[in-house]
Amino acid sequence: MYSLIADAVVVARYLGATLVLPDIRGSKPGDKRNFEDIYDVEKFVKSLDGVVRVAKYQPAKLSSRNLAVVRVPNRVTEDHIAEQIEPIFRSKGNLRLATYFPSVNMKKTEQKSNINSVECLAMFGTLELQPEVHEVVDSMVERLRTLSRKSNGQFIAVDLRVEILEKKGCQGMKSCYSPQEIALFLRKIGFNKDTTIYLTQSRWDSSLDALKEFFPKIYTKESIMAVEKKEKFLNSEASEFEKVIDFYICSQSDVFVPAISGLFYANVAGNRIASGRTQILVPANIPGSSASAADFLSSYVSKKNHLAYSCFC
């Protein structure tokens, strides 16, 4: 969501256009939420005051079906807006933006442009959870810290989702690590059986048993969310809530381990860098019996090449 918002704000700013609060669309057709279901609208509007005009609702006279749809590459440049988007905007007057990801591109660019500061503001200064979702995340983080008494209240968040690991894109590539590989990696860099681990996997899957053998204090959303919140935030139609909860818990954990490479990892890394939580350890198959955790620090941090570093220098 951070990337999508940043692109929309950058385009609206360049064009001098009004930004209508976007729907939040899930991966399945028809799976969408209103912006205010998840984020604090007042904070969003206030943070963009003087930068971009924001409308909470699409004007009634505009039909979504009649809007010209423009594909916008993530991290859109001024040249692209001028050449590909502005002419359509000038002729049509209203646009619907559809961001796509030619690649996961969160590295900072060397050349400075007028849109850099707007991009930084949009990514790191506009989105805040609405109170109920905020409360759910805070209570889950608090629960994890309570469960981590033996490790001074510290816990690891691991982005590991079984349904993604099973997809063909993960087979044979080392951009994804299995539960067993994650268990071996964490052991070899010094984490012991008292380590508390939060998994982004929503519900327990038998394939995770190999990880639980090494690390018995391992938890999913299902096991630490308050019972009265599960019906709303953990049902078949709550995938966007689940992603947001994962994002914020992974951003607040003491250590973050992305078992899956990609956009979620890049966005969490940016949020962690912005808040000074730079313990991001990227898994690897380690020959031998032990290694230093410092050797596996994310290159976003070790090389300071994430765009967040150009926002928070």
Characteristics:
two-stranded parallel ribbon; Rossmann fold; about 325 residues; alpha/beta; four-stranded parallel beta sheet
Structure description:
The protein is an alpha/beta fold. The protein folds into 2 domains: 2-124, no CATH class; 131-311, Rossmann fold (3-Layer(aba) Sandwich). It is 42% helix and 11% strand. The protein is built from 15 helices and 10 strands. The protein has helices at 2-15, 35-38, 41-47, 78-92, 116-124, 131-147, 162-165, 179-188, 209-214, 221-224, 227-233, 239-252, 263-274, 299-302, 308-311; strands spanning 19-20, 24-25, 32-33, 54-55, 68-73, 95-100, 155-159, 196-199, 218-219, 255-258. The strands form 4 sheets. Strands 9-8-7-10 form a 4-stranded parallel β-sheet. A two-stranded parallel ribbon has the order 1-4. Strands 2-3 form a two-stranded antiparallel sheet. The longest helix has 17 residues, at 131-147. The two termini are 23 Å apart. It comes from Nyssa sinensis.
| CATH topology group of the largest domain | Rossmann fold
Number of helical elements: 15
Helix content range: 40-55%
CATH class of the largest domain: Alpha Beta
* Major sheet size, sense and barrel closure: 4 strands, parallel
Q: Roughly how many Å is the radius of gyration?
A: 20 Å
Topology pattern, helix = H, strand = E: HEEEHHEEHEHHEHHEHEHHHEHHH
The percentage of residues in β strands lies in 5-15%
- Detail the poorly predicted runs: none
Shape: globular
Known CATH architecture of the largest domain: 3-Layer(aba) Sandwich
Distance between the termini: 23 Å
User: Averaging pLDDT over every residue, what do you get?
Assistant: 89
What is the SS-derived class?
alpha/beta
Number of domains: 2
Main-sheet strand order equals: 9-8-7-10
Give the number of DSSP strands. Answer: 10
